[in-house]
Protein backbone atom coordinates (compact mmCIF):
# COMPACT_ATOMS: atom_id res chain seq x y z
CA UNK A 1 0.00 0.00 0.00
CA UNK A 2 1.50 3.32 -1.07
CA UNK A 3 1.62 6.41 1.13
CA UNK A 4 -1.13 8.00 -0.96
CA UNK A 5 -3.52 5.19 -0.01
CA UNK A 6 -2.44 4.73 3.60
CA UNK A 7 -5.05 4.84 6.38
CA UNK A 8 -3.60 8.13 7.60
CA UNK A 9 -4.12 9.78 4.23
CA UNK A 10 -7.61 8.34 3.80
CA UNK A 11 -8.53 9.68 7.24
CA UNK A 12 -7.27 13.15 6.38
CA UNK A 13 -8.96 13.18 2.99
CA UNK A 14 -12.23 12.24 4.66
CA UNK A 15 -12.24 15.41 6.74
CA UNK A 16 -14.35 18.27 5.48
CA UNK A 17 -11.53 20.72 6.18
CA UNK A 18 -8.24 19.08 7.16
CA UNK A 19 -6.68 22.43 8.09
CA UNK A 20 -9.40 22.94 10.69
CA UNK A 21 -7.37 20.60 12.90
CA UNK A 22 -5.89 22.52 15.79
CA UNK A 23 -2.23 22.46 14.87
CA UNK A 24 -1.45 24.55 17.92
CA UNK A 25 -2.78 21.71 19.99
CA UNK A 26 -0.58 19.23 18.16
CA UNK A 27 2.47 21.40 18.16
CA UNK A 28 4.94 20.97 20.97
CA UNK A 29 7.90 23.29 21.58
CA UNK A 30 10.24 20.66 20.18
CA UNK A 31 8.22 20.03 17.03
CA UNK A 32 9.70 21.46 13.85
CA UNK A 33 8.05 19.12 11.39
CA UNK A 34 4.66 20.83 11.70
CA UNK A 35 5.98 24.14 10.39
CA UNK A 36 4.05 24.89 7.18
CA UNK A 37 1.89 21.76 7.55
CA UNK A 38 -1.37 23.70 7.47
CA UNK A 39 -0.73 24.76 3.87
CA UNK A 40 -0.39 21.14 2.73
CA UNK A 41 -3.45 20.00 4.70
CA UNK A 42 -5.49 22.55 2.77
CA UNK A 43 -4.42 21.02 -0.54
CA UNK A 44 -4.14 17.40 0.48
CA UNK A 45 -6.16 16.24 -2.55
CA UNK A 46 -3.81 18.09 -4.90
CA UNK A 47 -0.66 16.83 -3.24
CA UNK A 48 -1.75 13.17 -3.53
CA UNK A 49 -2.04 13.31 -7.32
CA UNK A 50 0.72 11.42 -9.18
CA UNK A 51 1.28 14.41 -11.49
CA UNK A 52 1.56 16.90 -8.63
CA UNK A 53 4.29 19.49 -9.13
CA UNK A 54 5.12 21.69 -6.13
CA UNK A 55 4.81 25.43 -6.57
CA UNK A 56 7.37 27.94 -5.36
CA UNK A 57 5.29 28.50 -2.23
CA UNK A 58 5.14 24.75 -1.61
CA UNK A 59 8.91 24.53 -1.82
CA UNK A 60 9.37 27.51 0.49
CA UNK A 61 7.11 25.89 3.09
CA UNK A 62 9.07 22.64 3.11
CA UNK A 63 11.64 22.22 5.83
CA UNK A 64 14.83 20.32 5.16
CA UNK A 65 17.82 20.40 7.48
CA UNK A 66 20.86 22.01 5.89
CA UNK A 67 23.70 19.53 6.19
CA UNK A 68 27.08 20.50 4.86
CA UNK A 69 27.86 23.60 2.82
CA UNK A 70 25.96 24.64 -0.30
CA UNK A 71 27.41 27.20 -2.71
CA UNK A 72 25.33 29.44 -4.96
CA UNK A 73 26.58 31.92 -7.55
CA UNK A 74 24.36 34.58 -9.08
CA UNK A 75 24.55 38.04 -10.61
CA UNK A 76 22.58 41.20 -9.82
CA UNK A 77 23.12 44.37 -11.88
CA UNK A 78 26.37 42.93 -13.27
CA UNK A 79 27.67 42.30 -9.74
CA UNK A 80 28.69 38.72 -9.06
CA UNK A 81 27.68 37.14 -5.77
CA UNK A 82 29.06 33.96 -4.25
CA UNK A 83 26.91 32.72 -1.39
CA UNK A 84 27.50 29.88 1.05
CA UNK A 85 24.54 28.30 2.81
CA UNK A 86 25.56 26.57 6.02
CA UNK A 87 23.59 24.61 8.58
CA UNK A 88 22.76 26.30 11.86
CA UNK A 89 22.67 23.16 13.98
CA UNK A 90 25.34 22.91 16.64
CA UNK A 91 27.05 19.95 15.02
CA UNK A 92 27.24 21.88 11.73
CA UNK A 93 28.87 25.04 13.08
CA UNK A 94 32.37 23.63 13.14
CA UNK A 95 32.23 23.63 9.33
CA UNK A 96 31.68 27.39 9.14
CA UNK A 97 35.37 28.21 9.45
CA UNK A 98 35.86 26.95 5.89
CA UNK A 99 33.68 29.78 4.56
CA UNK A 100 35.06 32.81 6.42
CA UNK A 101 38.12 33.41 4.27
CA UNK A 102 37.69 36.60 2.16
CA UNK A 103 34.01 36.88 3.08
CA UNK A 104 32.44 40.31 2.55
CA UNK A 105 29.38 39.85 4.76
CA UNK A 106 27.58 37.34 6.95
CA UNK A 107 23.81 37.03 6.53
CA UNK A 108 22.39 35.90 9.86
CA UNK A 109 18.84 34.57 9.53
CA UNK A 110 16.71 33.87 12.58
CA UNK A 111 13.06 32.81 12.86
CA UNK A 112 11.15 35.26 15.06
CA UNK A 113 8.37 32.70 15.42
CA UNK A 114 10.68 30.26 17.20
CA UNK A 115 10.33 32.00 20.57
CA UNK A 116 8.27 29.05 21.90
CA UNK A 117 10.35 26.27 20.35
CA UNK A 118 13.45 24.37 21.44
CA UNK A 119 16.45 22.97 19.64
CA UNK A 120 16.23 19.61 17.96
CA UNK A 121 19.59 18.63 19.45
CA UNK A 122 18.97 20.15 22.89
CA UNK A 123 15.35 20.17 24.15
CA UNK A 124 16.38 22.29 27.13
CA UNK A 125 17.45 25.28 25.00
CA UNK A 126 15.01 27.84 23.57
CA UNK A 127 15.58 28.34 19.84
CA UNK A 128 15.34 32.13 19.86
CA UNK A 129 17.69 32.41 22.83
CA UNK A 130 20.12 30.15 21.02
CA UNK A 131 19.95 32.53 18.05
CA UNK A 132 20.68 35.48 20.33
CA UNK A 133 23.68 33.72 21.85
CA UNK A 134 24.98 32.66 18.46
CA UNK A 135 24.56 36.15 17.01
CA UNK A 136 26.45 37.61 19.96
CA UNK A 137 29.30 35.15 19.53
CA UNK A 138 29.61 35.93 15.81
CA UNK A 139 29.49 39.69 16.34
CA UNK A 140 32.08 39.52 19.12
CA UNK A 141 34.44 37.14 17.31
CA UNK A 142 37.78 38.90 16.94
CA UNK A 143 38.49 37.10 13.67
CA UNK A 144 35.32 38.52 12.11
CA UNK A 145 35.70 42.13 13.19
CA UNK A 146 36.14 43.47 9.66
CA UNK A 147 33.22 41.50 8.21
CA UNK A 148 29.80 43.12 7.92
CA UNK A 149 26.86 41.30 9.50
CA UNK A 150 23.35 41.48 8.03
CA UNK A 151 20.56 40.42 10.37
CA UNK A 152 17.35 38.98 8.89
CA UNK A 153 14.47 38.60 11.34
CA UNK A 154 12.53 36.00 9.40
CA UNK A 155 9.01 34.49 9.64
CA UNK A 156 7.29 37.66 10.77
CA UNK A 157 3.97 36.32 9.47
CA UNK A 158 4.16 33.21 11.64
CA UNK A 159 5.11 35.35 14.61
CA UNK A 160 2.00 37.46 14.05
CA UNK A 161 -0.19 34.36 13.87
CA UNK A 162 1.15 33.07 17.18
CA UNK A 163 0.78 36.40 18.95
CA UNK A 164 -2.79 36.88 17.73
CA UNK A 165 -3.74 33.31 18.66
CA UNK A 166 -2.49 33.98 22.18
CA UNK A 167 -1.84 30.33 23.02
CA UNK A 168 1.92 30.75 23.29
CA UNK A 169 2.54 34.04 25.04
CA UNK A 170 5.87 35.68 24.35
CA UNK A 171 6.23 36.81 27.98
CA UNK A 172 6.11 33.18 29.12
CA UNK A 173 9.43 32.62 27.35
CA UNK A 174 10.88 36.14 27.56
CA UNK A 175 9.60 37.74 30.80
CA UNK A 176 10.99 41.17 29.85
CA UNK A 177 8.31 41.40 27.16
CA UNK A 178 5.67 42.05 29.83
CA UNK A 179 7.31 45.42 30.61
CA UNK A 180 8.36 46.28 27.07
CA UNK A 181 6.90 49.38 25.42
CA UNK A 182 6.65 49.82 21.66
CA UNK A 183 9.12 52.52 20.50
CA UNK A 184 7.50 55.86 19.56
CA UNK A 185 9.04 55.70 16.08
CA UNK A 186 7.76 52.19 15.35
CA UNK A 187 6.52 51.65 11.79
CA UNK A 188 3.00 50.25 11.94
CA UNK A 189 1.21 48.79 8.94
CA UNK A 190 -2.45 49.80 8.48
CA UNK A 191 -4.65 47.47 10.52
CA UNK A 192 -1.71 45.74 12.18
CA UNK A 193 -2.35 44.40 15.67
CA UNK A 194 -0.53 46.61 18.25
CA UNK A 195 0.52 43.52 20.19
CA UNK A 196 2.13 42.07 17.07
CA UNK A 197 4.02 45.32 16.50
CA UNK A 198 5.20 45.26 20.10
CA UNK A 199 6.42 41.67 19.72
CA UNK A 200 8.32 42.43 16.52
CA UNK A 201 10.14 45.38 18.01
CA UNK A 202 10.85 43.52 21.23
CA UNK A 203 12.64 40.74 19.34
CA UNK A 204 14.52 43.31 17.26
CA UNK A 205 15.64 45.12 20.40
CA UNK A 206 16.78 41.85 21.94
CA UNK A 207 19.37 41.64 19.16
CA UNK A 208 20.37 45.30 18.95
CA UNK A 209 21.92 45.62 22.44
CA UNK A 210 24.39 42.92 21.42
CA UNK A 211 25.56 45.26 18.67
CA UNK A 212 25.50 48.47 20.69
CA UNK A 213 27.25 47.07 23.76
CA UNK A 214 30.02 45.46 21.77
CA UNK A 215 30.43 48.57 19.61
CA UNK A 216 30.76 50.59 22.78
CA UNK A 217 33.49 48.26 24.00
CA UNK A 218 35.29 48.46 20.69
CA UNK A 219 35.05 52.25 20.47
CA UNK A 220 36.64 52.72 23.89
CA UNK A 221 39.29 50.05 23.50
CA UNK A 222 42.86 51.31 23.87
CA UNK A 223 45.02 50.27 20.95
CA UNK A 224 48.72 50.37 20.25
CA UNK A 225 48.44 49.20 16.66
CA UNK A 226 46.32 50.56 13.88
CA UNK A 227 44.02 48.18 12.04
CA UNK A 228 43.99 49.50 8.48
CA UNK A 229 40.55 48.05 7.82
CA UNK A 230 38.91 49.64 10.87
CA UNK A 231 36.60 52.53 10.04
CA UNK A 232 36.77 54.14 13.49
CA UNK A 233 38.14 57.67 13.77
CA UNK A 234 40.84 58.36 16.32
CA UNK A 235 40.92 61.14 18.90
CA UNK A 236 43.66 62.57 21.06
CA UNK A 237 43.05 63.20 24.74
CA UNK A 238 45.00 65.52 26.99
CA UNK A 239 45.40 64.74 30.69
CA UNK A 240 44.47 67.69 32.87
CA UNK A 241 42.16 69.15 30.23
CA UNK A 242 38.53 68.61 29.44
CA UNK A 243 37.57 67.43 25.95
CA UNK A 244 37.24 71.01 24.64
CA UNK A 245 40.86 71.73 25.58
CA UNK A 246 40.07 75.36 26.36
CA UNK A 247 40.37 77.41 29.55
CA UNK A 248 42.34 74.73 31.41
CA UNK A 249 45.90 74.63 32.66
CA UNK A 250 47.62 71.74 31.01
CA UNK A 251 49.71 69.86 33.56
CA UNK A 252 51.24 67.63 30.94
CA UNK A 253 50.45 66.33 27.52
CA UNK A 254 49.56 62.66 27.27
CA UNK A 255 48.99 61.14 23.86
CA UNK A 256 46.64 58.23 23.75
CA UNK A 257 45.19 56.25 20.90
CA UNK A 258 41.54 55.29 21.23
CA UNK A 259 38.93 54.13 18.80
CA UNK A 260 36.31 56.81 18.81
CA UNK A 261 33.22 57.53 16.73
CA UNK A 262 33.60 61.33 16.92
CA UNK A 263 35.34 63.41 14.27
CA UNK A 264 38.37 65.66 14.79
CA UNK A 265 36.34 68.80 15.51
CA UNK A 266 37.93 69.12 18.98
CA UNK A 267 41.36 69.46 17.37
CA UNK A 268 40.51 72.09 14.77
CA UNK A 269 42.49 74.74 16.68
CA UNK A 270 45.79 73.17 17.63
CA UNK A 271 47.32 76.51 18.63
CA UNK A 272 44.82 76.78 21.48
CA UNK A 273 46.06 73.49 22.85
CA UNK A 274 49.71 74.37 22.36
CA UNK A 275 49.29 77.69 24.18
CA UNK A 276 48.37 75.83 27.37
CA UNK A 277 51.51 73.71 27.38
CA UNK A 278 53.60 76.16 29.39
CA UNK A 279 54.67 74.03 32.33
CA UNK A 280 58.24 72.95 31.54
CA UNK A 281 58.17 70.54 34.50
CA UNK A 282 55.67 68.32 32.71
CA UNK A 283 57.14 67.69 29.31
CA UNK A 284 55.32 65.47 26.83
CA UNK A 285 56.62 62.03 26.03
CA UNK A 286 58.02 62.60 22.55
CA UNK A 287 58.58 58.91 21.82
CA UNK A 288 54.93 58.24 22.54
CA UNK A 289 53.92 61.16 20.32
CA UNK A 290 56.08 59.81 17.50
CA UNK A 291 54.45 56.37 17.69
CA UNK A 292 51.02 57.94 17.85
CA UNK A 293 51.65 60.07 14.80
CA UNK A 294 52.86 57.11 12.75
CA UNK A 295 49.84 55.00 13.67
CA UNK A 296 47.20 57.62 12.99
CA UNK A 297 45.14 57.62 9.79
CA UNK A 298 46.55 59.90 7.12
CA UNK A 299 43.99 62.69 7.56
CA UNK A 300 44.67 63.00 11.27
CA UNK A 301 48.45 62.59 10.93
CA UNK A 302 48.91 66.18 9.75
CA UNK A 303 47.09 67.49 12.80
CA UNK A 304 49.39 65.58 15.14
CA UNK A 305 52.47 66.50 13.12
CA UNK A 306 51.62 70.17 13.40
CA UNK A 307 50.94 69.80 17.11
CA UNK A 308 54.18 67.88 17.65
CA UNK A 309 56.31 70.48 15.83
CA UNK A 310 54.67 73.39 17.64
CA UNK A 311 55.22 71.86 21.07
CA UNK A 312 58.78 70.97 20.16
CA UNK A 313 59.51 74.62 19.37
CA UNK A 314 58.18 76.04 22.65
CA UNK A 315 59.91 73.45 24.82
Automatic annotation (TrEMBL):
Statement: the UniProt record of this protein carries the keyword GTP-binding: yes
SMART domains, A to Z: G_alpha
GO CC terms: cytoplasm; heterotrimeric G-protein complex
One family name in Pfam for this protein: G-alpha
Gene3D superfamilies hit by this protein: P-loop containing nucleotide triphosphate hydrolases
GO BP of this protein: adenylate cyclase-activating dopamine receptor signaling pathway; sensory perception of chemical stimulus
Binding site for GTP: 60-66, 85-89, 154-157
GO molecular function annotation: G protein-coupled receptor binding; G-protein beta/gamma-subunit complex binding; GTP binding; GTPase activity; metal ion binding
Residues the entry annotates as binding Mg(2+): 66
Family label: Belongs to the G-alpha family. G(s) subfamily.
Designated name of the protein: Adenylate cyclase-stimulating G alpha protein
Upper lineage: Eukaryota, Metazoa, Ecdysozoa, Arthropoda, Crustacea
Gene: GNAS_1
